[in-house]
Amino acid sequence: MSTHNVWTHKGTFLLAAVGSAVGLGNLWRFPYLTGENGGGAFILVYALTIFAVGIPILIAETMLGRNSRRSPIMGMRHLTVTHRTSRAWESIGWLGATSAFLILSFYSVIAGWALHYTWQMLTGSLAGADAETIGAGFDALLASPGLLTLYHTLFIIASGLIVGMGIHKGIESSLRIMMPSLFVILLVVLAYGIANGDFGAAASFLFTFNIADLSLEGWLQAMGQSFFTLSLGMGAIMAYGAYMSSEASLTRTAIAIAIVDTAVAMVAGLAIFSLVFGADLAPGQGPGLMFVTLPLAFAEMPFGALIGGVFFILVLGAAISSSISLIEPVAAYLVERFDLTRPQAVFAMVVASWALGLLTVVSFNLWAEGSLFHALFGRSAFDFIELLTNIFMPLGGLLIALFAGWALTPSEVMKEMRTSETWFTAWRFLVRFVAPAAVSFVFLRTIPQVDGYLIPTIGALVIVGAFAAGRTFLTESSQEQ
Ligand code: PHE
């Protein structure tokens, strides 16, 4: 059964995909990874991967959605039938839906921190505070399972309500208000950073590169980040692509998404590092950059509490516009497959992902280092879930590239892309050779790093593989009858 839903306008897919792409990845992860990995060199690798690997896969993933006009799982099943390829490719849909579910569980917890800081900023409780107080405040937040659960719950309910209202009334209309407001706020924060901070230091930190500064680990993180930030390989783009107008251009839209997403990351980086350097703070603080270093910078600056509050509203908005794109692929599947109503499907997805999110909540306190879980698995549950998604994501991307590049018939793809011969050839080359090589490289390098995780990881892959193989076998035998 197809959903027959299409976005209201030709350009709505672009809006929705930008909403999905721009999120915590741009505002929180990109700046801190850049800070930890020495600035410019990291950005260079990141940008190269976005253009040589990210865009081609983005085009492929959107195309799979639009061509099937179904949720990722049902869509892949449909494509394997219409294109007469192995049913095993359906695993792309399953991998995507699983990753979306896993990512939502921790994404919502971290977005919840922004809720806490919005509140703290706007009530002025951090005004004039020193480094110690702010650091202690962040530690106290993480140490409280109750508070973390409260924020996580509020955030996921808000996301669920939007998706539950449907793609037009819920997703489209909220994005139409949210996205322009977010861009305005980002520019306000940038202007504030330029006026009160050290813009020169930020620009030279971000844009002077010395490739020797970048470790192998940094290379991998840069490539991983470029997937995460474009929302690739997780069914989100495929689910949104299913509603894309047939008239919109795949190539132009994908390039526009990548450019806007990269620009937002750069502007956020410039704004954040202007403030950080202006307050004489260190850029390499890791994940605490946004929640410790930045509040400290705001605490010292004029109108810091107000601008800080507005900044965290930006973070929240960007996170919600991404989290709704994580709910959609799974909810749409439940609607198509089990004939649930949309609110029922969203409810099921959100409750399950919320419950899994509790594991992330306790990873910072009850089950942190020193607990039995940590002793058994060598990491926190949050690190484990994040690691799984870091494996599924490139794997999903790899399979999408291989499917689009090798399994689909070129003439069909050419028809869907409706672009010039040259563009098509370039895209096809990237998707057949360059993207799979780059992604495999990232993927293979992650495996040895996961040492103690090798066995659970292989276990998970074997289960997915066996499932896919089982389905292939079942379909083939049922086709023979
Ligand atoms: N791209 C989002 C970000 O940068 C995260 C995300 C990943 C959203 C995958 C949807 C799917 O924050």
From TrEMBL:
It comes from the Bacteria. It is a multi-pass membrane protein. GO terms for molecular function: symporter activity. Keywords: Membrane, Symport, Transmembrane, Transmembrane helix, Transport. The chain crosses the membrane at residues 12-30, 42-64, 92-115, 150-171, 183-207, 219-243, 255-281, 301-334, 346-367, 387-408, 429-447, 453-474. Belongs to the sodium:neurotransmitter symporter (SNF) (TC 2.A.22) family. CDD domains: SLC6sbd_Tyt1-Like (cd10336). It is found in: Membrane. It comes from Halomonas heilongjiangensis. The keyword Transcription does not apply. This is Transporter. The keyword Metal-binding does not apply. Its main location: membrane. GO terms for cellular component: membrane. InterPro entries: Na/ntran_symport (IPR000175), SNS_sf (IPR037272), YocR/YhdH-like (IPR047218).
